[in-house]
């Protein structure tokens, strides 16, 4: 049984949190002890944050009281605390949720990179996802350059962000896929162009897997009734028959037992064409919704054209 991996990055070190979900896992193993420690710290942070929430936010509208609460949440900086922080305030007013994102953008040791990426893809509201994407782009985009990911733990943060984007682009959820595409473009992560091209089209099965029988049927034909059987009915001085009517069908019957709905994600398509056309210098609209065509173009034309571009001159001191 494979473990669940949650994007991390908050606090010192960053990276990911590997959450063991094997019921046979030895509770004394290092993985189990590490996970238990994370959960204890997270539960403690949730209790403290819920107390702050009750005393400073919700229906409380006194500006000074709310400002004190906003300052208090900045004391939560470790990875388990950040996980609790985002969960506790995900239904609060806009000023509180914006303050949480601002806090993530200023965490030490680049600890807010992965959480911001997660919120930019999985946040509930469009304005919230856009704000997380803006902060990530303004503060941390340079750390995601593969050439820069060689020191100070930047490689781990970059890998976490790429994992969030890849997961979003492969999600059956249209909102998450669109948000992941927006983040790819905002950070200029051209490596996600093929995956983004595949995300333009989503196929979903129709119906319940536990269902029996047809989803529907269509018949084009003719039906003719006939007497299939006669049941005699006898009484004193009388005899009669009770006819049983049958139906003979002649024609074509179409049965629909399983079906798949194909959804064309026009937002991803438009974003992809605009992004790649600007980066390539020519329109890519002719590639349409075909992932294979995009893959060939990416490998044979786009990547070679990027490699031929002159390297930027170093800035003057």
Provide a descriptive summary of the structure in words:
The protein has 317 residues and is of the alpha+beta class. The protein folds into two domains: 4-188, no CATH class; 216-258, no CATH class. Helix content is 48%, strand content 18%. The strands form three sheets. Strands 1-2 form a two-stranded antiparallel ribbon. A hairpin with a 2-residue loop joins strand 4 (216-235) and strand 5 (238-256).
Summarize the SSE layout with pairings.
Elements: E1 4-7, E2 16-19, H1 30-56, H2 63-73, H3 79-88, H4 94-105, H5 113-122, H6 126-140, H7 154-169, H8 174-186, H9 193-198, E3 201-205, E4 216-235, E5 238-256, E6 260-264, H10 266-280, H11 291-307
Antiparallel strand pairs: 1-2, 3-6, 4-5
Helix pairs in contact: 1-2, 1-3, 4-6, 5-6, 5-7, 5-8, 6-8, 7-8, 8-10
Query: Main sheet?
Result: 2 strands, antiparallel
**Mean pLDDT score, rounded?**
84
> What class would the helix/strand composition place it in?
alpha+beta
Strand order of the biggest β-sheet:
1-2
Which percent range describes the beta-strand content?
15-25%
Give the number of helices.
Answer: 11
Cα separation of the termini: 53 Å
Question: How is this structure best summarized?
Answer:
By secondary structure, the protein is of the alpha+beta class. It has 11 helices and 6 strands. It folds into 2 domains: 4-188, no CATH class; 216-258, no CATH class.
């Amino acid at each position: 049984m494979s473990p669940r991996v949650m994007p991390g990055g908050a606090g010192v070190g960053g990276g990911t949190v590997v959450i063991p979900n094997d019921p046979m896992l030895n509770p004394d193993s290092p993985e189990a002890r590490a996970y238990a420690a994370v959960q204890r710290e997270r539960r403690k942070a949730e209790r403290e944050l819920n107390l702050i929430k009750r005393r400073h936010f919700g229906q409380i509208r006194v500006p000074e009281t709310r400002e004190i609460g906003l300052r208090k949440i900045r004391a939560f900086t470790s990875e388990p605390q950040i996980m609790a922080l985002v969960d506790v305030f995900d239904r609060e007013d806009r000023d509180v949720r914006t303050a949480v994102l601002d806090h993530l953008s200023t965490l030490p040791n680049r600890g807010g990179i992965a959480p911001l990426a997660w919120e930019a893809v999985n946040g509930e509201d469009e304005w919230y996802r856009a704000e997380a994407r803006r902060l990530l782009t303004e503060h941390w985009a340079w750390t995601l350059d593969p050439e820069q990911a060689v020191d100070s733990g930047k490689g781990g943060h970059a890998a976490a962000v790429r994992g969030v984007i890849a997961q979003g682009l492969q999600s059956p959820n249209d909102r998450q896929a669109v948000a992941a595409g927006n983040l790819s473009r905002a950070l200029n992560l051209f490596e996600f162009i093929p995956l983004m091209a595949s995300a333009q089209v989503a196929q979903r099965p129709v119906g319940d897997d536990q269902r029996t029988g047809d989803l529907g049927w269509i018949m084009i034909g003719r039906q003719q009734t006939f007497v299939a059987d006669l049941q005699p009915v006898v009484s004193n001085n009388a005899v009669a028959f009770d006819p049983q009517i049958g139906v003979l069908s002649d024609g074509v019957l179409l049965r629909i037992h399983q079906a798949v709905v194909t959804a064309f994600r026009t937002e991803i398509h438009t974003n992809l064409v605009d992004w790649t056309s600007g980066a390539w210098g020519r329109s890519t609209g002719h590639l349409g919704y075909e992932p294979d065509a995009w893959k060939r173009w990416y490998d044979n034309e786009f990547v070679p054209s990027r490699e031929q571009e002159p390297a930027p001159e170093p800035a003057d001191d």
